[in-house]
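During the first year of the project, the team set up a workflow for recording each protein of interest as an amino acid sequence followed immediately by a discrete structure-token representation. This format lets reviewers and collaborators read both layers of information side by side without switching files. As required by the reporting guidelines, we include two representative entries from the current panel. The first entry is reproduced here exactly as it appears in our internal archive.
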Amino acid sequence: MTDRPPRRPGRTLTARAVLVTCAVALVSVLVTAVLAVPLAVRTAERQAQDALAAQARLTAEVLRFRLSRGRPADEERLLRLLANQGIDAYLIGAGRVDRPGLPRQVVERIAAGRNVSGRRIVDGRPALVEGRALAGGNGVVLTRPRATGLWRQVIPGLWLPLLAGLAAGVVAGSLLARRLARPIRQAATAAARLSAGDRAVRVPVEPPEEVAELAYALNGLAAALATSEGRQREFLLSVSHELRTPLTAVRGYAEALADGVLGPAEAERTGRIVLAEAEHLDRLVSDLLALARLEAADFPLDPVPVDLVELVGAAAGTWGGRCAAVGLELRVETPDRPVPAYTDPGRIRQVVDGLLENALRVVPPGAPVVLAVRPTGPGPTDGGGPVDGGGMTDGSGMTGGGVVEVRDGGPGFTDDDLAVAFERGALHQRYRGIRKVGSGLGLALAAGLVRRLGGTITAGHAPEGGAAFTVELPGIPYRIRTPA
């Protein structure tokens, strides 16, 4: 187990969520200010322009008939009232303005009898201008300085929203991080308990969907580990039982020989029994080693062009006598021409021998055992020779594969058995004490060998009433399969 790195401040999910939410709050406040302040400035100027226009209309109505008569007291009061409101009034009589500062274009426009409204430079400063023309080249122009420095006025007021945004970001980030981190911490705790060997741990499934998927994955992993370890325990128990049986026999006969209980007449028989049990032990150990090495990339394989008819014939010659000795009928079904395949003959013979040994163990006397071969593709009809890559051909350049079948008239399998037939120890555990069973290694080893050789192996129901194992092998050179 690797050591857990120390927790670094600022790298936790909580800290990052708080930082992100604070940054979002700050950006939101600033963006709002950037968009809102110009809008507020334009709105304020428009309102000031409208108010100045209303003042200009009122002033024009008052002065309409009095500009030619001078400045009466009510006019003076009106002009002072405007000045108190920050409004400068310019009176135009006969095309002349009463004091300097007003742009000439404004004076000329009023003298021409046209009104003026907008922004102008008055007396060297930007101002809002509203002019109303009167009869005879007379008129009045009201000006008000434009508001400046609004940004400087607004920015100090942003501190309160910024602080409020930061506070909201901290609160929202903390709540969000706690909500997001809780299922992750639960998953981490569950993973730690799994690594410590607790297979009963489960993670509660809760939204959002990604968290639920993580919980489902961890729960599935825990269930798979529990199942796998349970099968391993069952497998080890069955293997230990298989190892203990021949060891008990060897030990018993060895003690008998050491104590002198067995006489010279029984020594030969005892030696044969001990040798048979030792061979049994050797097969078990060899199967265990082969299973352990099967998934290694350096597992020795030597694929070459093979005639499956010849290979099966050799196997039948070896197993014919053993079948006859226990009252079984060994039938061989082969075509009248070679069946080419590209495989390791030693490993395939190991598979065939293992399947036949299983059949001899469970098939009752008088029942058949069938060893069959058939092609899966075009093959040679006149004794084809090797082609590039080591395959076999019929002269047309086409290569074929082959199928080897081992069928029997024994008790066979149920449909449930077929689903676990090639799992280590599965059938041994299921039928131990019910019928004769092996160590539970042979079928798993056969499946692994066939898979590594690029073929497939399946279990099914035989027409003879028992089990049928079908091994399909490639007929052309292939890339040897290695573990992922």
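The second entry, processed by the same pipeline in the following quarter, appears below.
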Amino acid sequence: MAPDNADDTWWDEDAGPVVRSFATTGGRTRPSRDEFNLITLIINAGEDDALPGLEPEHRSILRLCTGSPLSVAEISAKLNLPATVVKVLLGDLLDMGAIRTRAPIALAEAPDIHVLQAVLDGIRRI
């Protein structure tokens, strides 16, 4: 015999969203473009939420990335979605022109640690 309130027996507030990841992405498992990794920086290109075809998750990404860039990993953590799902959603937004991406600075282009240490030492002597 089922309890009076059968819905409460399998779901509670701590369970989180009941929508499966594949439903969020429309069944897609790969982004339309292969240019996202966990440290790729994303920023809103200045488009409104008025773009056609935006899902609530797309809008959330645009709001998060307005003003300052966020990495794919940060977006994933803030939305509590798997990174693969976020990459698919970011591919949609990039195809619409709603976001811009920026690769992080390559280690070869980063300042030499010895130069930075010398600068710090010089500042401390002042």
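For the second entry, the following points were noted during internal review. The longest strand covers residues 41-44. Residues 47 and 98 are 5 Å apart (CA to CA). Both points are flagged for discussion at the upcoming steering committee meeting.
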